[in-house]
Amino acid sequence: MRLVRGGTRWASLAAMFDLLYDRTHNVLLTRLSGSYCLDDIVVRDRQVTRFFERAGPAHRIADLTGITSVDVPLETIVGRFGSALKLPDLSTHLVASGEPGFSLARVITAHQYFSRRREMPIVPDMDAACRALGVSSLDLQPVEIAPALARESDALRFVARVEEANRREDLKLDELARSVLRGKFDTAFGEEEGGRSTGAITVADLLNGELPMRIDDGDLAVGCPGCGVGTTLAHCRTTVHRDTTYDCPSCGETLVRVRPLPDIGAATGYPVGGFDIDNAVDIACLGVILAARR
Length: 294
Ligand SMILES: [Zn+2]
What we know:
This protein has 294 residues and is an alpha+beta fold. It contains 7 helices and 17 strands. α2 packs across α3. It is elongated and about 65 Å long.
C-alpha cells in the first residue's frame, strides 16, 4: 500500500481531504471526501495543528458533505476528539447535510458540547457557513505543506493504518503472529537483539509515540536490496554513534538510519517524535508499508 501525494491533496484508495485557507478573512477550510477513516483524522488534525503553529489561530470550517462512508468506530472518533483535538481555533463550523456526514457532525458537536461546553454549529452548505462568519464569499487557496511536514503526514498515515490493521481480528498482532515471524528469522540469523546496544532509540520506540498499542522492532519487516535477504529490524545489526543505523544481518548494508532532529524542517527522512527516520528500504508492519526514502 503505497501512499500517493500530490500538492496538498492526500489520496489513498478510499479517502482524501483538502486543506484551504482564506488569508483575508482568516478562515481555514478542511474538506473531506470519500470514506472517513482513522488515518485521515490523524493526518488532518496534525496538519491543522501545524498550520496554527505557523499562522496563529483562525476560524475553521470542516466540510463533511463529500463523505460517502464512515470506516472508523464511533469510540475511536470520540477518543480522538477527546485527547488530540484541542486546537486554538477562533470558531469551528461543520458543513453537513446528507448522510453519513450529518450523523457524523452530530456526534462531533455533541461530544464537543458535553466535554468542553463548546458550541460547534452545523450548517447545511458553504454559503450558510459564510453567512455565519459574516463574510460574503471566501477566496480559498490550497495550503502549501513543506516537504518535511508532508513526510511527517506520511509517517502518521502509516502508523494510523498499522493501528487500523491491528484492530481487525484477522490481522491481530498477537503472540502467535509474532512467534511465527520471529521463529522464521531467528532460524536464519540467530536470536534477535543479541548484539543490540542498550539505550539506543529504536524505530519502534518512535512509532510507539503515535500508537495506542505497542510494537517493537521485531514487528517491522525489511528486505535488503544488496543481498535480497528478508528480515526484521530486530535482527539487523545496529551501530549507535550520533546516528543509529540498522545494517543487513547478512551483507552489512545500511537499511535504516535514525538521527536526532532538533528542527523538523531539516528532516530528510520521516520526522517522528523529534527524530528523523531515513529508510533506504520499505518498512512493513501488518502489511502496511512505509515507503523507502531513497
Ligand atoms: Zn544484505
